[in-house]
């Protein structure tokens, strides 16, 4: 009996629950190959229950996805839903026109597909975040640079867009994150006051299907920039101070506090991503400076630099946005 035949006999003789325990420990890069073994494995690895099982067993891994300017549309947005990465909008690098394109990459199949285009006016600089199997989009600007109040949600599995109620305020160049049961849209500016960013936020409650306003006056006192925020998934919200500080609050009702100061080579235009007690900061020391990437970890009331991340040469380039996905 050959070696491959012995392996097949061994796996087929194991109880299904033992096989499942083995599969949840496999590296995500092997998922596409394993889905071709048999019909049951294909259905299991393609099921949202598999990812939940993997997460609850402590075998999920967080991946940081950088949107390199050389490889994705300029100013596009990234969102993660389950084992799927969604790339939305952006500008054509040749014509500099806004795109309504949607591209979906599945880590379970290792393949891309074209999603249904975003409805309505072609927008850019909008808030975007994934949660509850959907990608939420709000605000931004149209091709005439008018700030938008409109919002919508994309069901990834159904490849279907649904219009949401409009926000109360116009929000161009805003940021977004998904927390618990809500899509939080922060900052942004209106058409009449471009580049003057406010300190307010709005949250869309997916249970009540409505927006509610949140005023973040405390952020102004901390000198924060609401154009770059991140949620950890454990109730923490992080934002960048315009004076080179990282601020954090515990949940919606917590108070903002400074937890770290950025290194000099990462103080300009920082990008944030967070999971658990970790925060990744991408920034630079000036307009012509190279970007620096630092990983922080919360220790008590402060965030401590654990290491400086240096990507391999083949993955180097200007990072215009980042996204964290759990596999």
Question: Can you offer a commentary on this structure?
Answer:
Residues 12-52 form the F-box domain. This is F-box domain-containing protein. The protein has 327 residues and is mainly beta. The protein has two domains: 3-56, no CATH class; 62-326, Neuraminidase (6 Propeller), CATH 2.120.10.80. 14% of the residues lie in helices and 41% in strands. The protein contains six helices and 22 strands. Strand 16 (245-250) and strand 17 form a beta hairpin.
Instruction: Tell me the number of structural domains.
Output: 2
What would the average pLDDT be, to the nearest integer?
Answer: 84
Distance between the termini: 36 Å
Binned strand content: 35-45%
Going by helix content, strand content and strand pairing, the class is mainly beta
- Count every beta strand, where a strand is a DSSP E run of 2 or more residues: 22
In the sheet with the most strands, the strands line up as 2-3-4-5
Uncertain runs are: none
Query: How does CATH name the architecture of the largest domain?
Result: 6 Propeller
The name of the CATH topology of the largest domain is Neuraminidase
Find the CATH superfamily of the largest domain.
Answer: Kelch-type beta propeller
Secondary-structure map with pairings?
Layout (H helix, E strand, L loop, with lengths): L2 H11 L2 H8 L7 H4 L4 H7 L2 H9 L5 E7 L8 E5 L2 E5 L13 E5 L4 E4 L12 E5 L2 E5 L12 E5 L4 E5 L10 E5 L2 E5 L13 E6 L4 E6 L1 H6 L1 E8 L4 E6 L3 E6 L6 E5 L6 E8 L2 E7 L6 E9 L2 E8 L9 E8 L1
Antiparallel strand pairs: 1-22, 2-3, 3-4, 4-5, 6-7, 7-8, 8-9, 10-11, 11-12, 12-13, 14-15, 15-16, 16-17, 18-19, 19-20, 20-21
């Amino acid at each position: 009996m050959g070696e491959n035949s012995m392996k097949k006999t061994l796996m087929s003789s194991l109880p299904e629950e033992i096989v499942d325990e083995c599969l949840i420990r496999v590296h995500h890069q092997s998922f596409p190959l394993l889905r071709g073994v048999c019909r049951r494995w294909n259905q299991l690895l393609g099921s949202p229950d598999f990812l939940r099982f993997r997460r609850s067993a402590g075998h999920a891994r967080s991946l940081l996805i950088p949107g390199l300017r050389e490889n994705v549309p300029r100013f596009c947005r990234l969102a993660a839903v389950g084992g799927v990465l969604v790339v939305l909008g952006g500008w054509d690098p040749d014509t500099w026109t806004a795109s309504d394109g949607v591209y979906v990459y599945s880590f379970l199949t290792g393949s891309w597909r074209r999603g249904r285009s975003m409805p309505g006016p072609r927008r850019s600089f909008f808030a975007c975040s994934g949660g509850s199997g959907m990608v939420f989009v709000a605000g931004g600007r149209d091709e005439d640079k008018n700030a938008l109040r409109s919002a919508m949600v994309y069901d990834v599995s159904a490849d279907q867009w649904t219009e949401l109620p409009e926000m109360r305020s116009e929000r161009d160049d805003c940021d977004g994150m998904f927390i618990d049961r809500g899509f939080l849209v922060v900052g942004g500016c209106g058409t009449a006051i471009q580049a003057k960013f406010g300190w307010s936020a709005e949250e869309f409650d997916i249970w009540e299907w409505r927006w509610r306003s949140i005023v973040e006056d405390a952020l102004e006192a901390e000198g924060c920039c609401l154009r770059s925020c991140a949620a950890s998934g454990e109730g923490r919200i992080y934002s960048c101070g315009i004076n080179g500080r990282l601020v954090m609050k515990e949940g919606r009702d917590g108070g903002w506090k400074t937890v770290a100061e950025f290194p000099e080579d990462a103080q300009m235009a920082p990008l944030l991503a967070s999971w658990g007690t970790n925060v990744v900061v991408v920034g630079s020391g000036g307009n012509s400076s190279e970007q620096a990437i630092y990983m922080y970890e919360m220790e008590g009331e402060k965030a401590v630099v654990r290491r400086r991340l240096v990507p391999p040469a083949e993955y180097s380039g200007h990072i215009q946005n980042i996204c964290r996905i759990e596999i």
